[in-house]
Each structure stands twice: as structure tokens, then as C-alpha cells.
Amino acid sequence: MRPGGPPRNLRSGQRPEGARGCRGHVQFGKSPQSPPSRTRFPSPKPSVSAAVRDCFRHRRRDSPWRVWTAALPPGRGRLRMSPRPRASEVRGPTSGTPAASQAARNRASPGASPDPQPPVAGEAATGGGSCRGKEGTSGELLPGQRVCKMAAPMELFCWSGGWGLPSVDLDSLAVLTYTRFTGAPLKVHKISNPWQSPSGTLPALRTSNGEVISVPHKIITHLRKEKYNADYDLSARQGADTLAFMSLLEEKLLPVLIHTFWIDAKNYVEVTRKWYAEAMPFPLNLFLPGRMQRKYMERLQLLCGEHRPENEEELEKELYQEARECLTLLSQRLGSQKFFFGDAPASLDAFVFSHLVLLLQAKLPSGKLQAHLRGLHNLCVYCTHILSLYFPRDVAEVPPPRQMPAGPETEEEPYRRRNQILSVLAGLAAMVGYALLSGIVSIQRASPARAPSARALGMAEEDEEE
Amino acid sequence: MWIFWQPEKAFLQMCNLPVKVVCRANAEYMSPSGKVPFIHVGNQVVSELGPIVQFVKAKGHSLSDGLDEVQKAEMKAYMELVNNMLLTAELYLQWCDEATVGEITHARYGSPYPWPLNHILAYQKQWEVKRKMKAIGWGNKTLDQVLEDVDQCCQALSQRLGTQPYFFNKQPTELDALVFGHLYTILTTQLTSDELSEKVKNYSNLLAFCRRIEQHYFEDRGKGRLS
């Protein structure tokens, strides 16, 4: 059974946050971290989403304590910790990992040791999730636990993946890509229910101080402040170019992307809405996709539609024309380089990639822009290159969205099942009650001896009536 | 409208095309796209810088012929940046900053109309602008954040300009016209506070750039307003 009951809220921490975090940290190290812990997981590849799932699965069977050790920063006093020797073992590999910054941040939690009890682990995760300020620096700390100066690791909530991509949402994809580029040790929660995110929208970043940021640009700015800066090596001129090209993307390409996925009827019905409806839990999938569509439509109208839209089609044509131009410009700017500014990816690459790859990968029934993009060979190569390099796991998986967020889904399942059973029972009870009350069905407490005669009487009555 | 015609005017001047500025109260309604400014040539009406540039190009005048593909891409990108940041910031200041709205904008916008139309139209326009701001994510920005964005944009422009006389080579292009137009407006328009123009003045090369263009192309207007 799932430990601890249904997680309604990520803050209540039943999620395998620790698990995910561990993977995140470990991955950031980019070192062959604790091989023993690795071997426990079926998937050796360092992908957060895979790790999430695996960590979660394993959590149930006497949770790999190493997972927790790595994940939780010290000072999670709530954990009933067991002795350190094992912790120190783990501490070795994980803190030994490079990322001076990681070591500096003391993220590898030395003190969090093997606690096989999931509820406590869950509690610890809760501790992580909710009480940042109170780092357990109080007496709850077991001896030897390092008091971590940094608060809990950052958590990123984003839309889950589909169509062969790590995420189906543009903003989530951009932020995810950026974090992969910089190797920021985030716990990534891929969910398909925006109401579960701390800010109500996705993507959302919960920082170490508990603050929640939901504007993608601000998320990236925050990551930069935390020294995960992909633009560190850029010259001033390149930084200026970044700003300029991001504006270009926003003005020219974004409206068309919105139009392609949300406004174009065929695409919306067959691709977008289908995915969201399947991914979201009941009953959200009944109204949320529609609501999102209305929001996007309004946004699109405001973005470009002070035009008297004399003609929807003309407007559309114009938009697509500009988008094609924009794609061509991007292609010209990229040339034959690997990334926009040389050999290392920068934040501009994250944004461009997220815009392009959505267009490239999704199987759109009416993809006029897609055709144009496919004709720009260097952009296609660019996208596949980044996808295979930074999201190897996600490329390999093209299963329906249902299977991907196995973590959150299995957690929701008992809750959902329970809901379903309850609703069926309630329906039955209502029907039976109504039937009884209105006399359609009546309960006769007749003794067996009298039953036949009662029946005979009943039949006789029927005959009479006829 | 008091702000928005500088870029287009600058562009036309740079192309050596004679242009006469006419102010009309119903300019927005006359324009085919609802946006001002627009040019009226013969029996054609073209609005917004992009289409104006295309139109002029079709007539045989162009400023960006000498650029290669990569430079053209950069030029377009920077133009979008300016549109995105500077134009929106100007709009924000004009319509979403309460001090400016109350003191300057409402009065100016409604001045051609009799009461109560002046108030109604002004409020309507304000509401429209606020809605647009919200849609692009500027709805919750404070004045300081907007000023910071302007600063960032100016920094990018300044870095791109460097020590060159114009953004690309020695000849002005549409980008120069656009940047000049906006910066000139920011520097010369009287607002309730000088913060916006101060931000621009921080970058000496941008200031020099504006002065240079003003002297070169607008010297017939008499003494430059940029001192």
C-alpha cells in the first residue's frame, strides 16, 4: 500500500520528493555517484523523470536510504535518523561530486540516514517541502548532522511529457531545458494537474526559501541568481543579442504557436485537447482544457488583434507569414553552429529549442508551419541534437502520456479509485432510495410459508386487473 | 498622438523622402489597422513601421540592402526588442502609471473632444491598454520593474551599438530609425518624472547616437531639442 495515504498536496509531501531530489542532486554531480544506489534502480540513465519513477517505485520497498540521504539536506530534524556510518558512506560519493557549488551548498544531506519507514520519510519530505525556515537546527538534529546553510532544494513543477518530449507546455519545456543545460539540482515534478502546483499554474518554481515563482523568465532569473547561469560566458554583445532574439521569438513565433496548438480547430481537437484531457484527472479534464483554450485565444487576440480582424484568414496568413520569416531568420542566425553562441548552450538556446521542438515533434494534422520548419535543415538538426543530448530518456519513450507520470498518477490512483467507487455507491443508493420512497419497489417481509400464497394472491390480482 | 510617430518619421527622413506631419483627432480610426501613425501617399494608406518599410521598399527605397543575411536577422530581432520593451514601456507609462495618466494623458487624449466624450474615450483607451498589458504579462509590473526593463533594453542597445556611428556599418538602417524615434521621444517628452529619460541618459553612446541623427537629418527643424 502506498505509504502514508493520498497526497493531496505536494506540500503534504507524500511525493517522492526526496527521491526525485536525490536523483536531481546526484545527476547534477554528473559523476558516477553512489554506484550501489544506482544499481538499485532499473534505469541507469541519468534522467530526472526516470529517476523520479524509479525512486518512487523503490521507495515502497524499504526505501533506499541513500536516496533519502542524498536528497534531504541536513537539518531535516523530523527524520528519526539512524546512525551515521551509512550516511557518511553516501556522503562520500555524493558530496565528493564536483560542483563546487553543490558542495558549497551542502545539498548532499549527510545526516539524513536510512529510515525505512515511508511515513517518516514522507514526513521528511514534508519537512522539506513546507518548513523551509525551520531547518531543524533545533535539538531535533541528530549529532553529526551538518546544519545546512541552504534551505531545501528548489522544486520545479511542470507539465508532464508527451509526443516524445519532456514536456508538452512551451514554458515548462523552456525552463526544463535551461535547468538541464546548467545542471541545476532541482527536484522536478512532472504533473498534469495545474491545481497541484503551488502557484496554481505551471511551470512553477518553489525556491529554497519557500517562495513560489511562476513566470518563466523570472524562474530563469532566479536560477541565474543561484549561480546556475548558462549565459556566464557570453560577451556583452551576445547578451544583447539574446534579448533581441527572445523578443523576436515572443513577437513572431509565439502567437503562431499558440494559434497552431490551441486555436486551429483540427489541431486542438485531435492533439492538444486530447492530450490534456487524457492527462488531467477527472473532473478537471472536463473543463480545464476549454478554459485554457479561452485564455490562449484571448491572449492571442490581445497580442495581435487590435487589427480589425476583417478577415480571420488574412490575419492568419499574415501571422504565418511572419512566423515563417522568423524561422528563416533563426536558421540564418544559427548557421552551422551547434548552438547559437558557439559550442555551449545558453538561455537563448533553451527558449529557441522549446519553441521549435514543440512544432517539430507534435504530430499535427494541419501543420503548415511544421512543413516549413522541417525544410530548415539546420534547425531540425539543432533540435534533435539537444533532445538526444539533454533528454535522452524522454526521446526513447513515446508512450501515451498516461504512462509517463507514473509517479503522481499511482499516488492519485487510490484516491481516484476511491472516488469512483464512492460515486457509484452514491448513485446506487440514490436510485434505490428513490425507488423505495416512491413505491416502485417495496419490501415485503413475508414469511416463506406465506410467500407462495402471497404470490398466488398477487397473480390473482393481476388476472383480475387484466 | 504625441508619442508614436517619431520612428516612422525618422525612417522616411533617412530615405530622403519628404514627409509632412498632420495631427488628427480621429487618426486611430482613419488608420487601416487601428494603429498610428500611418502614411497617406496618393490614394494609399499604410500604417505601422513594418508595412511602411515594405511599401517604401516597393517604391525603390531601402535602407537595409547592404546587409547580409545574418545582419538582417539581427536587425529584425533588435527591432522586435525595441518594440517589445520600449514601446510597451512607453505605453505603460502613458496609460498605467497613475500619476502620468491623471496629469497628462487623460487631458491630452481627450482634448479634441467635448465633454463627456473626452473622459469616456480616455477611460476606454486606458482600459484597453491595461487589458493588453495583462495579456502580455505586464499587468502586475510596478513602475520600477518597467524602468528596469527599459534599462535592460537600453543596455542591450548600447552594447550592440558600441562605438559605431550606426548599428550596422556606416549607414543607417530601419533599426536606427526605430531606435532614434523611441529614444528621442523618451528624451524630449515631458512626463511627471524624469526617471525614464534618466535611464536613457545613462548610456552616453545612445545619447550621442540620437544627437548625431538629429543633427544630420532633422537640422532643418532649427535648434535641436536634445541639448
From TrEMBL, chain B:
Question: What are the recorded Gene Ontology BP terms?
Answer: mitochondrion organization; protein transport
Under the heading Gene3D superfamilies, the entry gives: 1.20.1050.10
* Keywords noted in UniProt: Acetylation, Membrane, Mitochondrion, Mitochondrion outer membrane, Protein transport, Transport
Pfam families hit by this protein: GST_C_6 (PF17171), Tom37 (PF10568)
**Looking at the UniProt record for this protein, which Gene Ontology cellular component terms does it annotate, in alphabetical order?**
SAM complex
> Start and end of every Metaxin glutathione S-transferase domain?
151-213
Keyword Transport tagged: yes
Q: What InterPro entries does the database record attribute to this sequence?
A: Glutathione-S-Trfase_C_sf, Glutathione_S-Trfase, Metaxin_GST, Mito_Protein_Transport_Metaxin, Sam37/metaxin_N
| Domain Mitochondrial outer membrane transport complex Sam37/metaxin N-terminal, residue spans | 10-126
Location in the cell: Mitochondrion outer membrane
Q: What does this protein do?
A: Involved in transport of proteins into the mitochondrion.
PANTHER family tied to this protein = METAXIN RELATED (PTHR12289), METAXIN-2 (PTHR12289:SF38)
Family listed: Belongs to the metaxin family.
- Quote the protein name from its UniProt record: Metaxin-2
Species this chain originates from: Myodes glareolus (Bank vole)
